[in-house]
Structures are given as structure tokens and as C-alpha cells.
Automatic annotation (TrEMBL):
This is Polar amino acid transport system substrate-binding protein. The lineage of its organism: Bacteria, Pseudomonadati, Pseudomonadota, Gammaproteobacteria, Oceanospirillales. Residues 1-19 form the signal peptide. It comes from Vreelandella subglaciescola. PANTHER family: ABC TRANSPORTER SUBSTRATE-BINDING PROTEIN (PTHR35936:SF25), MEMBRANE-BOUND LYTIC MUREIN TRANSGLYCOSYLASE F (PTHR35936). Residues 25-235 form the Solute-binding protein family 3/N-terminal domain.
């Protein structure tokens, strides 16, 4: 089921930003829970990504709409700039940069992997990202693993979501499942994924933190103005308030 949220935009007039005929900017996000960034509670989408948009788009007659839809459809829809104009919580790749502008980074996650511990099987020996190539590695369709310092070749991306990815790992169809530490920890805390006692989570040694961005469609009219608006808001959110004294 598609859920959407509407809130107000940051104080800028229509003529100064996206054109006088624009009253709403439509974002999309993966429809899977990603606590603490994005998750359902009491039938409502909540989380830090919602907080960012609410603060970014506050105190103005402007509105935003947020659609939670399958990730691959979100990317395809935003690429044209018609139904959706921007994507939340996206990682960078050269291929994506051909179709989208990237905002300033507004948070980061730790590249990690999952495996099933067993008394009669040695744990994967991972000392650097390239060690992963020695194992059967699985990921999720449409997900970007460039930040893991992997080329993407040899990754089985047959899983449609994280739950299915973990099911494949538990069933022995993968040796390793790629994810991000903070996402798995959040899903575990909220009881949203299979989590048997043997399921182990490890950060990938020597992999850099993976930065996340808001992507704006290059095909959207006035895309660069929207990008400047988003970046200005991200800078404001990152700046501590001055002491009133």
C-alpha cells in the first residue's frame, strides 16, 4: 500500500525557486522499513528522513509529498522527473549521476556483511573488501554496492528485499549477504527481519563509510534550483544554532 505524507516547505517564494506554477515537490523512498531512517509505526511512516524533510520544508506555503514505493520503481519514476522529482537516501554511483543531481551528503552508514555461524563451518575470513570475492555473495536487486569497494560483478542480486536476502542466506544459497550495519541493527531492534541466533553481522574491514544523498532528477524543470534549495537546507540542519546570548 502506498502511503504519502504532506508537509510545508522552507520560506522561499515560488518565483524565487521552482516557478510560479509549482506548489508541490514529490519525493519517493523505498517502501521497506529502514529504522531509524524510515519505518512504519501505528500506520504512519516515521523516522529521521521524515524529520529532515519536515525541517527542510517548514514555514512556507510550499508542500512536499513522499511516496513509499519499491526501490527500483522509485528510481525509474524519478529519472523522468514527471511523477517524482527526487529520491531520498540514495548512494552515489557514476551510472546514477548520468540521470540525477546529488545533494550534499546528509548521513552515512557502515558497509557490512552477514553470515551464518556454524560449529562445523569456518567463519568467512574478511580482512579487506576484495576478500568477499572468495565467497558466494548476495545482494538486493537495484541496490548500489559501489561504496563497498566492490565492482558489483559476482554479486547475486536475485533478492527483491532485505528479508528475502536474509532468507537466502539462512537457506544456504549464499555465504555472505551485503548490507549496512545501522540498517540491520535497526531492523533487528524493531523485529522486522529474520534474526536467528546464528546470524552474525560484521563491518567490512577497510571499507569507507557510505554516504547518502538526496537525488534530484536531471529531467525535472528547474532541477538545479531545487538542488540548491535542498543543499541550503542540509547546510542549515548541519549548523548548530547560535547561542542566544
Amino acid at each position: 500500500m502506498r502511503r504519502w505524507l504532506i508537509a510545508a516547505l522552507l520560506a522561499l517564494t515560488a518565483s524565487q525557486t521552482f516557478g510560479s506554477n509549482t506548489t508541490q515537490i514529490t519525493f519517493c523512498h523505498d517502501n521497506e522499513d529502514r529504522p531509524p531512517r524510515f519505518y512504519v509505526r501505528d500506520g504512519e511512516w516515521q523516522g529521521r528522513d521524515i524529520d529532515v524533510l519536515d525541517r527542510l520544508f517548514a514555514d512556507s506555503p510550499w508542500r512536499y509529498r513522499l511516496d513509499a514505493i519499491p526501490w527500483r520503481r522509485c528510481l525509474q519514476s524519478t529519472q523522468s522527473g514527471k511523477q517524482h522529482q527526487a529520491v531520498l537516501s540514495a548512494t552515489y554511483s557514476v551510472a546514477r549521476a548520468k540521470h540525477y543531481y546529488f545533494s550534499n551528503s546528509y548521513y552515512s552508514h557502515t558497509p557490512a556483511y552477514l553470515y551464518m555461524a556454524s560449529a562445523d563451518k569456518k567463519a568467512p575470513e574478511i580482512t579487506r573488501p576484495t576478500d568477499l570475492y572468495r565467497y558466494r555473495v548476495c545482494g538486493v536487486a537495484g541496490f548500489n554496492y559501489v561504496g563497498f569497494n566492490l565492482s558489483g560483478k559476482g554479486i547475486d542480486r536475485g533478492a527483491k528485499d532485505l528479508s528475502q536476502l536474509i532468507d537466502k542466506l539462512i537457506a544456504g544459497r549464499c555465504d555472505i549477504a551485503l548490507s549496512r550495519s545501522e540498517i540491520i541493527q535497526g531492523l533487528r531492534e524493531h523485529g522486522r527481519i529474520p534474526s536467528p541466533a546464528a546470524l552474525e553481522l560484521r563491518a567490512i574491514p577497510h571499507a569507507s563509510l557510505e554516504r547518502y544523498y538526496i537525488m534530484v532528477s536531471r529531467n525535472m524543470p528547474n532541477a538545479k534550483q531545487l538542488l540548491r534549495f535542498i543543499n541550503h537546507g542540509i547546510e542549515r540542519l548541519a549548523t548548530p544554532p547560535r547561542d542566544a546570548s
